[in-house]
Amino acid sequence: MNVDRIVLAVAGLFVVLSSTLAYYHHIYWLFFTAFVGLNLLQSAFTGWCPLAIILKKLGRPSGQAFS
Questions:
Q1: Contact yes or no for 15/36 (Cβ under 8 A)
Q2: Which residues contact 62 (CB under 8 A, 6 or more apart)?
Q3: Does residue 62 lie within any of the structural domains?
Q4: What does pTM read for this prediction?
Q5: Distance separating alpha carbons of residues 23 and 3, to the nearest angstrom
Q6: What was the pLDDT predicted at 3?
Q7: Which residues 6+ apart lie within 8 Å of 42 measured at CB?
Q8: Which residue range(s) make up the domain with 52?
């Protein structure tokens, strides 16, 4: 898996997890869902993502979005 796919998979996992926690635990978990969504939106325009930087330093191959 390259960096792009890992970033999308982790973001999707966090959205599902925080939505589930908001439903079963507390509604404030939706703030984390919004944070993940806003981070994805800004990375689409800037190409900068903290997780992508970490994954590159760990030696994962880059994709087209975070090269």
A1: yes
A2: 2, 3, 4, 56
A3: no
A4: 0.86
A5: 30
A6: 92
A7: 48
A8: 3-57
Cα separations in angstroms, 36 against 23, 33, 45, 51: 17, 5, 15, 11
Total domains, the chain: 1
Position 32 scores a pLDDT of: 96
- Going residue by residue through the chain (67 aa), what tens digit of pLDDT does each one get? 899 999 999 999 999 999 999 999 999 999 999 999 999 999 989 989 999 999 999 999 988 887 7
Whole-number Å distance between alpha carbons of 44 and 66: 10
The closest of 65, 58, 64 to 42, measured between CA atoms, is: 65
